[in-house]
Amino acid sequence: MAYENIIFEAAEGIATITFNRPKALNALNGDLLDELSAAMDEIVADEDIRVLVLTGAGEKSFVAGADITELATFNTLQGKMFARKGQLIIGRIQELAIPVIAAVNGFALGGGSEMALACDFIYASENAMFGLPEITLGIIPGFGGTQRLPRLIGSNRAKEMIFTGKMISAAEAMEIGMVNRVFPQSSLMEEALKTARAIAAKGKVSLRAAKQAVNSGLNVDLATGCHIEADAFAICMASEDGKEGTRAFIEKRKAQFKGS
Ligand code: CO8
């Protein structure tokens, strides 16, 4: 598929999706969401892709939210349908079997923060700003922000951000556990790709199992979570990668994972 609102690249096991509507600070409109969905179809179909990195075009914005000019035209039903469309597509990012890193290179507002929150972790540039400003527009976050943000940073901090609509800096976002690491803008992508390469060198089966165990475990009690972990562990032990990893340790050599 030819993309106009995103740039989709894949090389050496790492896919990169760059949100690319710089004139609107990479705001999410319906066409962009459709393209994102199609790119994810390509990723799912390509066994060689082991890690996905999301970022925004330019040095000013990751994603400045849903496209407000489009939102303003919606009636109630269209608004609900757009919210569900965004939720489903953003949900697919979270559910992807491979790790997903958000490289937030500027504004991550509204749907932009919500997109980043669905990734497995967030790296940010020093100029990045996070926020859920929907309240200022007389609406609320609609792409999962009221659900994922409290789970990540706690309900009180999340409510403060959601009720005030205020932006926080990358440094503050790191302090409250929303962002893992902050880099100068010039080195953000290289750092994200460096981590992506380190992850891509690990076994695909164990990465998938680790992601599923953490994600599924977050929604259940500890005892149930430990059962989920044990099942995921068993899948790894039965895999070729699991056998190769332990054998390589004993034979004092680097493991050659095949992804099976
Ligand atoms: N949508 C559309 N266009 C946008 C958006 C946006 N979200 N953000 C910026 N733009 C456009 C501006 O209109 C401007 O266009 P133009 O040059 O044609 O006037 C251009 O991008 C540059 O923006 P600014 O001139 O405003 O740049 P500043 O540096 O002065 O300000 C800000 C940058 C602070 C990021 C400012 O642009 C801003 O506040 N943007 C809106 C941020 C926002 O409120 N985002 C939340 C949107 S709502 C949302 O995400 C809900 C998600 C769930 C939806 C559920 C659906 C029902």
From TrEMBL:
GO biological process: fatty acid beta-oxidation
GO function terms (MF aspect): hydro-lyase activity
CDD domains: crotonase-like
Pfam families, per database record: ECH_1 (PF00378)
Key words of the record: Lyase
Family: Belongs to the enoyl-CoA hydratase/isomerase family.
Record InterPro entries: ClpP/crotonase-like_dom_sf, Enoyl-CoA_hyd/isom_CS, Enoyl-CoA_hydra/iso, Enoyl-CoA_hydra_C
Taxonomic source organism: Desulfosarcina alkanivorans
UniProt entry tagged with the keyword Signal: no
Lineage per the UniProt record: Bacteria, Pseudomonadati, Thermodesulfobacteriota, Desulfobacteria, Desulfobacterales
SUPFAM superfamilies: ClpP/crotonase
Superkingdom assignment: Bacteria
Keyword Nucleotide-binding set for record: no
Name under which the protein is recorded: Crotonase
